[in-house]
Amino acid sequence: MRFTEIRTLLGECLRHAPGRTWLVLVLTPLGAITPGLTALGLQWLVDGVLSGARPLVIGGAVCAAAAGAFALAGTRVMQVQTDLLGSEAGPVLDRRIIRWCATLPTTAHLEDADSLRRIEQIRGLGQRTVTTGLASLFVVQSGIWLVITTILLAGVHPVLLALPLFAVPSILLTRTSSRRAETARAETAERNRAEQHLFTTITEANSAKELRLGASGAHAAAIARRLREERTAILWRATLAVGGLTLIGSLVFVAAFLGALFLTVQLALSGTVSPGALLLVATLGGQIRGQLDLLTHALTRSAYGLTLAGHYLWLRDLHAAGTGGTLAPPGRLRDGITLSGVDFSYGGPPVLRGIDLRLPAGATVALVGDHGSGKTTLVKLLCGFHLPTGGSVTVDGTSLTELDPAAWRERVTAAFQDFSRFPFLAREAVGVGDLPRMDDIGRAAEKGGAAQVFARLPEGERTRLGKALGDGVELSGGQWQKIALSRAFMRPRPLLAVLDEPTAALDAASEYEVYQRYAEAAQEWQRATGGITLLVSHRFATIRMADLIVVLDGGRIIECGTHAELIDLSGRYAHLYDLQASAYR
């Protein structure tokens, strides 16, 4: 048993439905007693009839009838109450899961296959986590019942104590089966996620163009079909293994049960035990078989539920660990942001190595380098999306890990090349750039170009965008990019503003306007907060305006200085600049 997971689930149930939870906890031991009382009542009834003892007959009949009735009603009531607990506490878990996923300070879990597998297994399954996890109570109930059964059988003959022991192989094999089923589900989670991703890719308008142009839709569908077939094969093999192990355990017990009946018949014929003892053993033996079926089902369900609960606790701990910093970022940068000996790896070869860099307060800094040189990774570290695997990032001398992640994010704004296309109302798609100022989007919309987009929409800024949440209006790539750029203008006093290739979908005139407005904004941020503007671009006409240009190659800084200094150096930057400039001559 995983007591931490059980304690967590019971704690949630007690918090949100205390009366119902206590009812289930009371019914658990009562449900364990009733099968034994049924068997004992039948023994008294038979012995009373044969001996003419009316009190024994009446007592046995009342005991068997009451226990039988409670067994039927109590089990059903407990099952219903457990389902209701799941419907009340489960949505609470679901809300926390989606909130934790949405507010994790870092994004490392989204780039790790094992983390994605865990999230895939727990996503939207809060109710099932509670109901299957509480199946552990049925396991406890069966354990209590087994103790009572052992005591009753020992009263007939000590040898019969061995009968419940023959249930042990079945229980052990059942647990092995549960682990195999659990392993199979975990093994297929990644395939299921990949299949769903392919299905989304096939059915999304953005990817449909390339799939049809390259006639690759059938290829993507074939990959999805292969993943589904592999998943089905793994689950089918696990199902066969579970069925075979369960059958072996059942056959072992059936053989022992027949031996117990034969022994009891011999004892009854010799007068060692009463005739009612035969009915007691037969009833208990039959119950053992039924209880084993219930135990098998409960073990399987509880193993699944507790695994889900384990993933829930993992996500909770991951969220708690990522929100460890408590210090507030400075209201104004005095020194700047410093990276000292920073290394970073996504789990494979290093992506950044020995980065020593100071971004001065109020400066405009440009990152230059080929694809894969580490520019985007460096941006992720500065935004706090990832933590360095070595070295440190400090803000005015304070480590970024000591700052409250939420507070730091509130002082960072960014426009990315791979921007999000939020299917909200047009004004909301801009306003989410700074939720406290959601209704004050006018200035940001003008600066980023969203105001021009609003003017062409049928309902202006109240037009729904995209098709994901309804019949909205689909935008061009350039229009979506203007919405994203406007989001980046929502925060008026950032300490760090990032422009990571933000104008790839814009025409030359629009791009020029955007950079002009960012240049103006950078001066405002510099005066107001000492804010740093970080540019990532391959367009040297934009880069040359930076106060500091950093050239990356293979995860290392190979050059650093102003445009004039780097041109005089005649190194990598000068070579790239000449290549691009020659295209315009």
What does this 3D model show about the protein?
The structure is a single chain. The protein has 21 helices and 10 strands. It has 585 residues and is an alpha/beta fold. It folds into 2 domains: 3-322, ABC transporter type 1, transmembrane domain (ABC transporter transmembrane region fold), CATH 1.20.1560; 336-582, Rossmann fold. The chain has a 6-stranded mixed β-sheet, with helices on both faces. Strand 1 and strand 2 form a beta hairpin. It is elongated, with a radius of gyration of 34 Å. The mean pLDDT is 82.
Main features:
four-stranded antiparallel sheet; six-stranded mixed sheet; 2 domains; ABC transporter transmembrane region fold; 21 helices; 585 residues; Rossmann fold; alpha/beta
Summarize the structure.
This protein is an alpha/beta fold. Helix content is 65%, strand content 10%. The chain contains 21 helices and ten strands.
